[in-house]
Write a structure and sequence with these properties.
mainly alpha
Length: 314
């Protein structure tokens, strides 16, 4: 049986935590400090994203005085049967996956080199970061000059070796590989910096212990360096894939999606549909599909990170 005191205690309403004037002032101060950073994000990211999603359900065009009508899922139904878009989607996956993997392999080798006792290490790091300092448009223009079938230095070297020149960006079989090479060259510096930071965070004692056990450089790389870099590798590869899948300027300047749509990735296809064919509503529906695809990839990455953190806590 419960006593009278216990009954009175259990019947009391829960005590509401009062927020004092000082706490209110601190909260207002925090909001005032965060607001300048949040406003640009809301204006330049959130509002355009919401507007783009809504336009995907309309028949909006760039024609003058054209009325915008809500058409529901018509754009998405038409998009489901648009073979050209899904071809560009496949090309985008090949492009992004190839660039992300080749960049990882190349940057890993460069990071290992920079992490060693290399002479002129500082100068080498500066030279390795040059592509990172160049805008994508400038990179594309430089590589168009390199790939030029008539006056480009690449075909000049091939001619000196007695090998016939190639129309690198105009031939159906070489256009996509040539563009992938440019994407890898442009993406190496950022990945190298992240991998190098991960390598320098590994305790030297781990390599020393492996060396004492008789492990050579290759075995130390496979059994010490790679396991320690696993979280960095997963994060870099996932984010690089997303970045490349959304890339636009590099391929637009290099090929504009040609020849014959061989390098037509989804963002470029969406841009041409919006501003060349003037179908803003249909292009927005394409953008919505791309947003969903990127969210799926991000979800897989975040789930993997959550599992890793959970396993580390255990």
């Amino acid at each position: 049986m419960t006593t009278l005191a216990e009954t009175k205690t259990s019947s009391r309403p829960p005590r509401v935590r009062q927020i004092g004037p000082r706490a209110r002032a601190q909260r207002k101060e925090a909001i005032a400090l965060v607001a300048p950073a949040l406003l640009p994000i809301i204006i330049f990211s959130v509002i355009p994203l919401v507007s783009g999603v809504l336009l995907g359900f309309t028949d909006a065009t760039l024609a003058r005085n054209a009325e915008i009508s809500f058409i529901g899922l018509d754009n998405f139904i038409e998009l489901a049967g648009d073979r050209r878009f899904w071809q560009s989607f496949g090309i985008g996956i090949v492009w992004a996956g190839s660039v992300a993997l080749l960049t990882l392999v190349s940057a890993m080798g460069l990071a290992l080199l920079l992490n060693s006792n290399l002479r002129l290490k500082g100068l080498t790091r500066v030279l390795a970061l040059i592509p990172w300092a160049m805008p994508p448009v400038v990179i594309a223009i430089v590589w168009r000059m390199i790939y030029n079938p008539n006056s480009g230095p690449l075909n000049g070297v091939l001619g000196w070796l007695g090998i016939p020149g190639v129309n690198w960006l105009g031939d159906f079989s070489t256009a996509l590989p040539a563009v992938i090479v440019v994407g890898v060259w442009a993406g190496i510096p950022q990945t190298t910096v992240l991998l190098l930071a991960g390598m320098q965070s590994i305790a030297p004692e781990q390599h020393e212990a492996a060396a004492v056990d008789g492990a050579g450089a290759v075995r130390r790389f496979w059994h010490v360096t790679l396991p320690a870099l696993r979280p960095v590798i997963i994060a870099v590869t996932a984010l690089d894939f997303i970045w490349q899948f959304n890339s636009f300027g590099l391929i637009y300047v290099l090929t504009e999606g040609g020849p014959g749509g061989r390098t037509m990735i989804p963002p470029l296809f969406t841009y041409l549909e919006a501003f060349r064919n003037r179908e803003i509503g249909y292009a927005s529906a394409m953008g919505n599909v791309l947003v969903v695809a990127i969210l799926v990839i991000l979800s897989l990455y975040l789930i993997n990170q959550f599992r890793q953190n959970k396993g580390a806590r255990k």
